[in-house]
Amino acid sequence: MSSLPHWLVAVGVLQDKTGAVLITQRDLKRHQGGRWEFPGGKVEPGESVLDGLARELNEELGITIGQTQPLIRIPFEYPECRVTLAVIRVQEWQGQAHGRENQPLRWCPISELDVQAFPAANSPIITALKLPPFYVITPDCGSRAEWPAWLERLERVLANGAKLIQLRVSLPPSEQAALARLALECCHRANAELLINRNAELAEQIGADGVHLSAAQLNTLSQRPLPDAAWVAASCHNTDELAAAAKLGVDFGVLSPVRPTSSHPHAQPIGWAGFGRLAAKAPFPLYALGGMSPNDLASARQLGGQGVAGISGFG
Ligand SMILES: Nc1nc2c([nH]c(=O)n2[C@H]2C[C@H](O)[C@@H](COP(=O)(O)OP(=O)(O)OP(=O)(O)O)O2)c(=O)[nH]1
Ligand SMILES: [Mg+2]
């Protein structure tokens, strides 16, 4: 156990009508001085995270917060202290947000949030803001005769608004590459991103948006298989796999099975309580998987999850 001081920090994410996020600049003289941050501060003894957030946002921005939703919880160790950032979306507030402590303030479009300008603990917040609520996994696909129906189903899922897709098919390599190219075209036409299950080389070769690693691959890799600009995601089932994924520097993960599923009948479900407990320890956004439907989004988000992942019911 580290002897460094530990702070629980309530952090607020406010978005305007265009989706731009409120960021403020930290005073030069303070920890992480000069960096941009999401407004908030240390939760005081006896305070809940929401009480702390309400007090900090009133002190720093002069607003009164209304409805909120957890975004992500991030444990992080700086050389001089440990922090747990409890990051909360503030969906409603009263008053005009202004720099009450004369701190510079701006509304920044998500696409312009530059990881470098923030404290190191913040990159998962930026990832969480970029990732959509649903992560759709493709069903398996067989011979070429089945491809048109499979692609039609993908088109339906995309027409329904899916923005992040994982290609998971067990085909011979050349067939997989051919189907992956077709799937990628569909996804990009719909302004959606495609990750390739397990195969970073194929992802790179066809210009896909990332790779989705299996839990088994986490222990065989010593570094991220793709550069920072591409997504690297991973399947996790327990604390050890989450730790291995964090060590590798994945962008996000999928935790399963939350509920029993017919695809893995012998796996012990972790339930929503297990999901919430593990999500709070993972320093990256996590989707809930296993018996999920889009209707489960609110449960996943309430527990600080990014959203839900699944094969059926999303298109
Ligand atoms: N508010 C905020 N703090 C962050 C972010 N990222 C990050 O690593 N931190 C760290 C920096 C600090 O070590 C700690 C937050 O403390 P703070 O300085 O804002 O606390 P505070 O508002 O209560 O200020 P103070 O009274 O202690 O001066 O968390 C972020 O996005 N927002
Ligand atoms: Mg503060």
Automatic annotation (TrEMBL):
One of its GO terms (molecular function) is 8-oxo-GDP phosphatase activity. Its cofactor is Mg(2+). Gene3D superfamilies: Aldolase class I (3.20.20.70), Nucleoside Triphosphate Pyrophosphohydrolase (3.90.79.10). It holds the Pfam family TMP-TENI. It is an enzyme of class 3 (hydrolase). Its EC number is 3.6.1.55. Mg(2+) binds at residues 40, 60. Residues 4-132 form the Nudix hydrolase domain. Keywords: DNA damage, DNA repair, DNA replication, Hydrolase, Magnesium, Metal-binding, Mutator protein. It catalyses: 8-oxo-dGTP + H2O = 8-oxo-dGMP + diphosphate + H(+); 8-oxo-GTP + H2O = 8-oxo-GMP + diphosphate + H(+). 8-oxo-dGTP binds at residues 26, 31, 37-40, 122. One of its GO terms (biological process) is thiamine biosynthetic process. SUPFAM superfamilies: Nudix, Thiamin phosphate synthase. Signal peptide: none annotated. Belongs to the Nudix hydrolase family. This is 8-oxo-dGTP diphosphatase.
